[in-house]
Amino acid sequence: MTKVEAIIQVSKLDAVKDALQEIGVEGMTVFEARGHGRQKGHTEVYRGREYTVDLIPKVKLEVVLADEMVEKAVDAIVTAARTGKIGDGKIFYSRIDEAIRIRNGERGDGAL
Amino acid sequence: MTTVAIASNELRELYARETAAIQQEFSVTGDGRVAVEHRTAVVDSLLLKLWNEILSTDPAGPRGFALVATGGFGRSRLYPHSDIDLLFLNTDGDAEEEFKDAIRRLCQELWDLRLKLSPATRTLSECEKLDPNNVEFSISLLDCRYLAGDRELFSRLHEKAVPRLIGHECKNLVQNLGDLTRSRHHKFGNTVFHLEPNVKDGPGGLRDYNVAYWLALISAIEKLQTWPDAKTLLPVSARKTLEATTDFQMSVRCFLHFRYGRQDNALSWEAQDEAAARKIGARDLEISSAADWMRLYFGHARAVHRVCTQLLEEIQAAWPSLSRQLQSWRSRVSTPDFSVVDGLVFLQNPASLQDPEMLLRLFHFMAEHGVKLSTTTEYKIEQALPSLAATPPRGGELWLYLQETLVQPHAADALRAMNALRLLPLLLPELKGIEALVVRDFYHRFTVDEHSFLAIEHLHRLKESKSEGDQRFGELLSEIEQPELLYLALLLHDSGKQAQDDNHIKTSLLLAESCAERLDLDPQDRETLEYLVASHLEMSVAMRRDIFDPGNVKVFAEKVGAPERLKMLCLMTYADIKAVNQEAMTPWKADSLWQLYIASANYLSRSADERVHADDHASNLAHLHSLAPVAGKKINSFLDGLPQRYLRIHGASDVIMHAEMAAQLGKDPIQLGLKQVRQWYELTLITTDRPALFASVSGALAAWGMNIVKANAFSNSAGVVVDTFYFTDRFRTLELNLPEWERLKKNIADVIAGKADVARMLQDRARSDKSQGPKVKIKTRIDFDDESSAHSTLLQVLTQDRPGLLYKMCSQISKLGCNIEIALIETEGQLAIDVLYLTSQGAKLSPDQRGALAKAIREELGVK
Predict the structure, then answer these.
(1) Is residue B158, in this structure, part of any structural domain at all?
(2) Does B548 touch chain A (CB under 8 A)?
(3) Could you say which DSSP state residue A12 is in?
């Protein structure tokens, strides 16, 4: 099992969700996040006051997948989240030892 | 002490058999009261058997030790999976030591029977003292009941120790009970109206009933020094209501315990469906859906919550001095119509409620002072409602009172009280369908009506918020010209959810239209209300796009159109999200909302010069034509070349009036209109463009002592100028002298025509003006922007507001040969925000001109 974490633009969340659902990924966890990579902040002046946003709002999406699904899911995320500009985000993945469904104690891929 | 082995299997079987019988009986009768009493009896008998086996074959022995039921078990209200509160009572420490093993063994046997036990061991003297770290134990003694052992010892507890404890610690007990209750209510957002309520701990749940009972009991014991008659303890008015209510709630809690097979008191959606299908607690009633059943639930919960909170307030003797001072302060707000005692409103003349106006004034009074209705006042209102229902107030009179109520700091509480008494749906039947309505989604935590009240409450709270994140929205709220429309829109925004279809906005809009008709709102206010209701999700949707993308900002800002609407929509979005649940408005969302707001506000200031073309087919033009079919062509030629911004800030009736004034220019080249609009006066000038026009009118108004708070200046392709000045009358000249209206207009016309010298008029004013200096110092900032407009240079001046400011600035602009194409003038408190679109000989300003202008303005304003 693999955990895929994707940090994407807020505006791309719906598209990514749809793309994942299309390949059969039903469940996911979404977090409100802030950050920046090479994309720098944004400054807006309003009534003489400067409002600087150093950390841009993003969403972080987490899915734990059976190994054979990982590449398909990553492709789906990349395709749906890409605009080609700086700030599109990142994807990370890491190994997961076990998954347990709390409702019935089911373990392994079946619990995903 | 005996060492005989206990027949655990036998007891276990007995307990299992009896539990099954209780469940079976409940499934047939649905009677919760019978079920809890039955379980209490079963556990009583088990305990007695164990007592006989472990401690004494004589149920009244041994001496110096007694077994006492406390808490819910003491009240004989043992729900199917409730804990069993037991007190092992000893005369002293020696007895405690003597019976230690027996206590351990008895507890072990009960745990083996899988009973959840909450045991406590205390000496008699310990029971008399209040333990500040365990107030709950002292409160549980209020329900103590003899089970076995030394009866005389129990009698000393019941007859002496507990009354003595109350005698000494009455104030502390009430104070602690109040604190515990308030903190419990706070955990549930201080509202009964949860989509999935907790029937035990939630506001209006069984715990509130217990609190009401304990408060009344403590108060009575303190007075009588002995136990009162429990049946007559609660006020007569509350007793009857609460009897039916507790029967209902007991049945619901038993149903939940049986359903989940554990102590779980959450009324989930699935449980609501099943409870409605089985008519739990409502055997003889017509229940057609889970929503119907939940309305019944909320009705009962509301009654319990009301009694509990009223008693908490009424039993005032134990309140801390600060609160008492506050209450005394509140009593000083009494008027000839209403008296306030301990934060509760009483009517000076109860018969006065026959007058609907008095009823409306009463709720306005509540909203203003944050006081609650006394029980007798509520009773009087209930009595007055039938006659009011025959001819409910409507139209301007109702709106007058309603708007005054909505803008008061405690409006949400007043609305809740009106709703609880069924007055609100009587006045605004559009809200009837959302009363205690549960609409299931994964985000909202409250019923639709409560969500709307909470949204209003959150906006009002902004005014006193200390959080920096909230303060920026609070400042925005203070700038809103008609906050009452914003609050009314919040009250109605989700009313369409009663239709229970996918698009509640459509129904909300229809209901808002009906409400606007009922309140006889003027056309512009109606338009604003309907816009807000119809668009209340627009900004949330826009936040899901890239809010830093200028293209997205442009699309959103153009959709909103006018700065005032943008402010209202932003605040509506803030309140709507915040009222979804306690965690919904995260700092992340609040920042995103603010960023979108400021980007859109800036866009609207910088794009004000996009022009209207006569052949546009925009919906607003079509709307104008439908309103003025005959004048259609005239309107087209009048609008041609005016900035789009003009159409966004002026309603249809204004535009038609301006076009008609423009058509009169042949007869009189200076058309002036003056009217009072809400808190200020509005002067409209239609004339042909000429040098220093805007500066001259600003100067004339300043010379009359008027304070310009807002102004707009536009011109069309034929060179017709439409300037609007909104000003306050510092010296009440117009208010006190009607003939001065005409004199002011004539004087302005003379200034424009060059017949009067505005500079001299201003000098005269300066000599007589003794106004004090500003309280807040604002640093002047002058910025130019050549990017935002294709034709003009934008000048933005942020500075301290002062008399004649606009004249001083604009006359410098004219002196340097610059033309004001568009002016957008606003004042927020002491801050003047002036955005001017300037040209010089039809082109943008050169860098030299910009430098010279900035220098001239700084010198004129006397700033560095």
Answers:
(1) yes
(2) yes
(3) G
Q: What is the domain-level CATH number for residue B37?
A: 3.30.460.10
For residue A76, the distance in angstroms to the closest alpha carbon of chain B comes to: 20
Where does residue B736 rank: exposed (0-12), middle (13-18), buried (19+ CB within 10 A)? Answer: exposed
Instruction: Give the pairing of strands B680-688 and B793-800.
Output: unpaired
User: Are B570 and B593 contacting, i.e. CB atoms less than 8 angstroms apart?
Assistant: yes
Do B746 and B839 share a domain, yes or no?
yes
For residue range B104-124, list pLDDT tens digits in order: 999 998 988 888 999 999 999
Contact B800, B831 (CB under 8 A): yes
Do residue B147 and residue B41 come from a single domain? yes
SS (H, E, C) B49-79: HHHHHHCCCCCCCCCCEEEEECHHHHCCCCC
Indicate whether B329 pLDDT > 70. Answer: no
Write down the domain spans for chain A: 2-111
Which candidate, B304, B119, B306, places its Cα nearest to that of B198?
B304
Measure A85 CA to nearest chain B CA, in Å.
12
The residue among B574, B606, B638 that closes a domain is B606
Residue B759 lies in a domain: yes
Residue ending a domain, among B144, B159, B183, is B183
For chain B, the C-alpha Rg in angstroms (whole number) is 36
Q: How many domains does chain B divide into?
A: 3
> Which regions of chain A are under pLDDT 70?
38-41, 48
d(CA B164, CA B408): 46
CA distance A112 to A24: 12
Cβ atoms within 10 Å of B112's Cβ, excluding its own: 12
Q: Residue A31's closest chain B neighbor by CA? A: B588
Residues B815 and B699 in one domain: yes
Q: Which helix (H) or strand (E) holds A2?
A: strand A2-9
Nearest to B592 among A9, A14, A57 (CB): A57
Mean per-residue pLDDT over chain B, rounded: 88
Structural domain span for residue B692: 664-861
> In degrees rounded to 5, what are phi and psi of residue A82?
-80, 130
B40 lies in the same domain as B160: yes
Q: What are phi and psi of B675, to 5 degrees?
A: -150, 160
Q: Is the ipTM of this complex over 0.90?
A: no
CATH code of the region A2-111 = 3.30.70.120
B678 and B768 part of one domain: yes
- For residue B833, the one-letter residue type is I
Determine, yes or no, domain membership for B768: yes
Q: Decide if A46 and B544 are in contact by the 8 Å CB cutoff.
A: no
The whole-angstrom distance between B599's CA and the closest CA on chain A is 7
Residue B3, pLDDT score = 44
- pLDDT grade for B325, boundaries at 50, 70 and 90: low
Q: Give the whole-angstrom CA distance, residue B368 versus residue B360.
A: 12
Secondary structure in 3-state letters for B82-130: CCEEEEEEECCHHHHHHCHHHHHHHHHHHHHCCCCEEEEEEEHHHHHCC
Per-residue pLDDT of B153-194, as tens digits, reads 999 999 999 999 999 888 889 989 999 999 999 999 888 999
Indicate whether B123 belongs to any domain.
Answer: yes
Query: What pTM does this model have?
Result: 0.77
CA-closest candidate to residue A75, choices A26, A32, A13, A16: A16
Cα–Cα distances in Å, from B334 out to B348, B351, B611? 9, 18, 57
Cα nearest neighbour of A55 on chain B: B588
CB pairs under 8 A between A and B: 47
Judgement on whether residues B151 and B38 belong to the same structural domain of the protein: yes
From CA B840, how far away is CA B246, in angstroms rounded? 80
